[in-house]
Specification:
single chain; 308 residues; alpha/beta; Rossmann fold; six-stranded mixed β-sheet; four-stranded antiparallel β-sheet; elongated; binds adenosine-5'-triphosphate; binds magnesium ion
């Protein structure tokens, strides 16, 4: 069933005491999508992922993976899902290869999975650590093992809960290329991250959670198009005191005679020209102009800003 649904989430609620961690979450993810799940700390992202993996029991609603209900068809649903958890959880007494074998055993896999385990060890640059105890690995290496564990049963849906948190630039790039490869091999990818440039680079569709609610769900392009403003920065060598009062609130003095004027613009092209006309009428000598488009981070901040 090509282009069927990889994940369905139907009106899911979960409370932890007074905290409504998931407040009626409702959306679907298509097979083959690269899907971003974003939101500030405490938004409910991990709770939702853990509910999909059957680790959190929801209060109401339905969840399914590749058409299998997480509650009533747990083993079928779970075996189609690979989860890289946010927390570094591991057994310190296991070696790396043993950790992967143990995870395979959990899914009822035996010797037939050995070649795949060796491939994973290579892929994750862990081959020379295969006999090392988990407790002696660095944080980044432990994270690679967690990724291996998530992939050991070749699940069609892979959910990564902040896989690049606290990892160095080199490993982050490696993880990006591994995740991209998994996606082009046909896996559905769900990625949670606080690095918005990472979501902007990788994801096709993005959901934004805030305080247990879905506040946006759109393609990256459409989310970016919501960015309501651009910012125009103009640099000039006029002394601030010679500028007209109408520009006073736009001025940032960089040095005594080097000034940046900042204007928030709408989307219309003409607004740049209007500002330039104002500047010229004021007799200001412009030496540099820069226009800044809103990026995903600006849109994210607008959508998740706390209600005052
Ligand atoms: N086991 C639990 N017991 C009590 N409260 C919990 C539990 N798990 C999560 N919560 C609460 O539910 C809310 C959502 O937490 P969750 O971990 O899902 O957020 P998150 O979006 O993953 O945040 P982060 O970006 O910090 O990982 C938070 O208020 C959190 O304190
Ligand atoms: Mg989390």
């Amino acid at each position: 069933m090509k282009n069927g649904l990889a994940v369905t989430i139907e009106n899911v609620h979960k409370r932890f005491g007074a905290v409504h961690a998931l407040n009626g979450i409702d959306f679907t993810i298509q097979q083959g999508e690269f899907f971003g799940l974003l939101g500030p700390n405490g938004a409910g992202k991990s709770t939702l992922i853990n509910a999909l993996a059957g680790l959190v029991v929801t209060d109401s609603g339905h969840l399914s993976v590749m058409g299998f209900d997480v509650r009533t068809q747990y083993r079928d649903a779970r075996s189609r899902l690979g989860v890289v958890p946010q927390e570094l959880v591991y057994d310190p007494f296991f070696e790396v290869r043993e950790t992967l074998r143990f995870q395979a055993g959990y899914f009822g896999l035996g010797r037939e999975v050995e070649p795949w385990i060796e491939e994973l060890l290579d892929e994750l640059d862990l081959a020379d650590k295969a006999e090392t105890n988990m407790r002696s690995l660095s944080g980044g290496m432990k994270r690679r093992v967690l990724i291996g564990q998530a992939l050991v049963h070749k699940p069609p849906v892979v959910v990564l809960d902040e896989p690049t948190a606290g990892v160095d630039v080199e490993l982050r790039r490696q993880l990006w290329s591994l995740i991209k490869r998994l996606h082009s091999d046909g896996h559905t990818i769900v990625l949670t991250t606080h690095y918005l440039e990472e979501a902007e680079e990788l994801c096709d569709r993005i959901a934004i959670l805030n305080r247990g609610e879905l506040v946006a769900l759109d393609t990256k392009e459409d989310l970016l198009a919501r960015g309501i403003s651009r910012t125009l920065h103009i640099h000039t060598r006029e002394p601030a005191r010679t500028l007209p009062p109408s520009l006073a609130d736009k001025v940032k003095c960089i040095t005594d005679d080097y000034i940046e004027l900042t204007f928030n613009l709408g989307r219309e092209e003409s607004s740049v020209m209007q500002v330039l006309d104002t500047i010229r009428d004021a007799g200001v000598n412009v030496i540099d102009i820069r226009v800044e488009e809103d990026d995903l981070e600006d849109v994210f901040v607008q959508l998740t800003r706390e209600a005052d």
